[in-house]
């Protein structure tokens, strides 16, 4: 038997590869499809340079656990072979017998105890991707009673290899995107992507919750952002429309400058108000042009009080004592020294001594300067992480 060179079969194999790029659980099916395409006895995409206790490989269905255990037991023998595999140029298709030499390969414990029992008597390999000290290598094997691979089949591996590389890159990019989405969902700040007409393209959980709150000054209406309940007189809504229009660049046009902050007052005025930050969002080409008319909106509740965890962050940032961090937090909340003394049930002179110590540790000299410093640190720690370190 030889590889299936039929155009439809090739198209189906490539389609299976890209399906696996979108859905990682389909990689074993894609590898099995490649094995069938080449009429092989075994096939895999193996990661080299790994710790055998944390194996990450794509193998034929049912093989993962077995190869993990085998490589752990046969790791020393395998590592000798691996040292040659990792220096082969990327994209070069080679025979494992030619690379290692038939006598060397078949004398190895790895071949005797792993390859031969699984009818792996001659393979075509291609080093696809290299990252750091790791490489990913496609390997398809033929059995003892099968014909060796010929030049046509070698060229076929070379034709399929770029598709495997691209699919693996796509798979990594999609995984990173999913991880980023999970991270954004974990944030307390609401994040939205919108089009120039305020149509909502995406929203994280915090944004959905803020827009759905009863009495929210901003809401989702027919999948668009719209002013809701509250004392906003329309100027904020118009400012948001203009800011989003500016942040959404024309197709092929340059990105605009810095974004905008807009306050939508709640029913109680400043109490319950939403602050909306607007910034451009788009994919850039090599000349800095955007091809997506999107803007990124960050929604957060306006609050005079520092976010939860702010006091602990001040302690870490400036090596403050608990009392000093408490003082800095209360100043950031707008309290006077007299108010702080009364709240803490301590003498005003004691509060002033705390303040002097904080001045030294923060390299500030005036109370207003200290409050400004505290407020400038809050967005990174409190506004966008909910006060979690």
From TrEMBL:
Protein's name in the database: Helix-turn-helix transcriptional regulator
Organism: Antarcticirhabdus aurantiaca
